[in-house]
## 1
Amino acid sequence: MDFFLTLFSKYKCLVYTAFGDEQYLQIAHKLSACGVPFRTRSHLDANRFLSDSAGVFPREDRIQYDIYVKKADEARAYQAIHKT
């Protein structure tokens, strides 16, 4: 299924990978504030899930968010993300 989503999506440029809700929300806010449309694909990291029982990783950092933009918006997205 991921293959077809990637193949037919207009959002193909991976501009950021966030770990955890807080980091994702910060980047999503920056992109939205600058008017850059984006799509997100989330993944549960099994290694982090297994390691969590030992207390190695905080619970909220289990999810990986990949943030994609259109090729035409790639430069604007990087500018928005790295703007202080």
Note: The longest helix spans residues 21-33.
## 2
Amino acid sequence: MSEPEQNLYTPSQLNQEVRGMLETVLPGIWVEGEISNLARPASGHLYFSLKDSDAQVRCALFRARASRANFRPENGDQVRVKAKASLYPPRGDFQLIVEHLEEAGEGALRRAFEQLKQRLEAEGLFAADKKRQLPSFPRRIGVITSPSGAAIRDVLSVLERRFKALPVIVYPVAVQGDGAAGQIVRMLEIAEQRNEVDALILTRGGGSLEDLWPFNEEAVARAIRACPIPLISAVGHETDVTIADFAADLRAPTPSAAAETLSIDTAAYLERIGTLHRRLTAAEHRLRNSRQERLDQLERRLACQHPGRKLRDRAQRLDELESRLRRLVLATISNHRQKINTAEQRLFSASPKRRIDDSRRQIQQQLQLLQQGMRSRLNDSRQRLAATTRALQAVSPLATLERGYAVAQHPDGKVIRQAQELKIGDTIYTRLATGALDCTVERIYQQHTDTTSS
């Protein structure tokens, strides 16, 4: 006999029901593990698994949240996530919807410390010319620290011993954990607004790098530089160094050393400040708890009705379809590329390029032979020309002139062959082997031995 119909679920209904139960029971949890199977689709969302030695869980970090991460996650990274447990209905997969992602471990903190220090130092935030001069005789000092920590006790002990009459105002803050940096920044702003002290001490006792991390926040460093009141940083032990130490006007190795530097006593006001701090802290805790409870109720109601759930489901489904489409496109491209390569090989085998190359080589060889033949005929012609030139020079009148003879000419250029053609006083042009002469006839000889003149 079958169960009543109201107990019969479809897979979709069952997954939606389980999903609602998970998101209501586990709306916000912290999980730490190693990233594996990381995927980055074009939508900007991140999908990965968090694993330890025994198990793993799927995670989805949507684009709006992923853009706020202060580092680029990779496979193998040890991370800590704040998430709510959920279920992906189309597949029935249990998964975490990640709302915050951060690196885990002290190594990440140390890397973040060095990166921030280098950036602020390059910006000039730690420059010596920005340091303020500490007052020689402060009328009143302020101490920004936890009122219940060892640091304030050390400071007060030293100040009580050195100068009881000097008032001290304690600005109470949390010195570790979430919200501590914000409290420190706020207290620096309050000290500036009140303008009731001449110097400040920012201090706490020793601890791990994680414990001291509020003093390594950029907001704290900038608030220190923005505060016009001179400030001494005395955080941790002598070996502890924080960003606040670089931003402060002076770094003291210990809280006691900072108190000795200013020589200030807070004994007259310590009890009153402690009482006000405890009352303020208690009232703050009551108000915060009340508001947090109300906020949790509203968030649970919103989670059940918020359209963002369907949008996330659609986005995740879209990413899956996109991955399938990308694989199909890549396979199609690969197939066409293979066909093109085959066609190129066939075209190369039938290409006339080889015959053209052979014809070019034959033409080049013929051209070389033609050039050699032309050079040979040119050399033969040059040799024959030289021989002809030598023969012509042998019978040339110029050769006669070279042997010492001359050629006489009338002014009109006619050659004089007989002496009778001339008379005394005529001008003749005489050409020699080199150069020429204009001569005037003074005597005429009929023969070489004849001396009679006309």
Note: The domain at 5-104 is CATH 2.40.50.140 (OB fold (Dihydrolipoamide Acetyltransferase, E2P)).
## 3
Amino acid sequence: MKFSTKGRYALRMMIEFALRPGECTKINHVAERQDISDKYLEQIVTILSRAGYVKSRRGAQGGYYLAKDPSEYTVGMILRLAEGSLVPVSCMEEEINSCSKADTCASMMVWKKLDKAISDVVDSITLADLVTEQKRLEGIED
């Protein structure tokens, strides 16, 4: 399974916002720091804003900030918002008519275990965990 740039960039943008609690962060700051197109980040922040994950403030000191504490967001929440479903194979999608072979398909065991493993990982890591790791990597102390 590969995650798209949209999912990866949404996660990196949320980390940037979480690194500055109580402050507004401008998109161009995130774009510069993460070496990502600010036009692409504007599209992603719209998705995050519509979902209520971030809020905006206008004006010279404006920008975006997290709507909730970083501990209230999981990696899974952010990736599912940006990517949609994280299931490893399309026959597991709920929106799609179930595969007629699902009940007799031995490989379904693999896909279900893989789906559970992915969910267990992404749903157990919070944005606060990633902020802690980012600060460690940058040598920033709290």
Note: The mean pLDDT is 92.
## 4
Amino acid sequence: MVTIKQVSEAELEDILPLFNAYRLFYGQFINESAALDFLKDRLTKKESVIFLSYNNKVPVGFTQLYPTFSSVSLQSSLILNDLFVHKSYRNKGIAKKLLEAAKRYCGTNNYKGLALETATDNPAQYLYEKEGWQKDVHCFHYFWTAK
């Protein structure tokens, strides 16, 4: 049975292997203590909201949301920055349930909406569009990297 839980500090050890696998997937090195500190800081400072998916009490996926603000709309919204499901549990509806949890949280807490960014070749685009997410074709996104 798949369940979704909002993460507190008590679940940090549950999410850590998934978070490390997610970072490894994106070409980063595993640094368990730094990853744990990062997640703990986000939660204790209330800088993110994390939902964790369990399949029969085994942690199998997560999504992390970060708040942002719009001066134009005078509203806050959320950035769905991370979405990851362990490869053994993909294509079983877990990512969809995590997206649904994020949508519920957004609506319940009066956010304007959710934004996400994904690679142009990410097959998850199909899921996002199927679940009502709309591709932004009206603007470009730029990023500057501090050296």
Note: The CA atoms of residues 21 and 27 lie 10 Å apart.
